[in-house]
Amino acid sequence: MDARNATKQKRRKKSKPRTQASSDSDSEHPQPTQKSLPKSDSPKALTSAEVSAAFTKYYLQHATQEFAENLDKVRAAEDFRDDALPLLVNALQQGTSLFTAEEQRRIVEAGMEKKKK
Fold it and tell me: Where is region (Disordered) located (predicted)?
């Protein structure tokens, strides 16, 4: 049995696939992380609601500029009624849900920095 125990001790752990994240590998080789500015160092500490509102405004402005021709065609269609406009706006706003809160904050703060310059 001594030879058998020695064999077991020499065996290595199977390596995990590269796509599989584990806490073991994270602690052995810490990944560099992107540090965000503390709220006190930012130009103005924005609440989550303020960031969300500012991002929605930004997103809608850019979406309507990008899709201006298509939106004009939709609005000019014979079957488009005035009461469909809020539905159209709501549909465009749904695109903001594709962005995480952190991404929204980063975009809003970058816009604030750009305005300062």
Answer: 1-48
In-domain check, residue 24 = no
In 1-84, where does DSSP find H-type helix?
Answer: 2-10, 23-28, 48-66, 68-76
Please tell me the pTM assigned to this model.
Answer: 0.57
Residues 6+ apart with CB under 8 A from 56: 93, 96
Cα–Cα distance measured from residue 13 to residue 90, given in angstroms and rounded to the nearest whole number: 53
pLDDT digits (tens, 9 = 90+) for 7-54: 555 555 555 555 444 444 444 444 444 444 444 444 468 899 999 999
Contacts with 54 (C-beta within 8 Å, 6 or more apart), sequence order:
46, 108, 111
Range of the domain at 108: 39-117
Q: Is 19 inside a domain boundary?
A: no
Q: Does any domain span residue 9?
A: no
DSSP single-letter state for residue 19: T
- Domains identified in the chain, total number: 1
Judge whether 5 lies within some domain. Answer: no
Structure tokens at 51: 């960031």
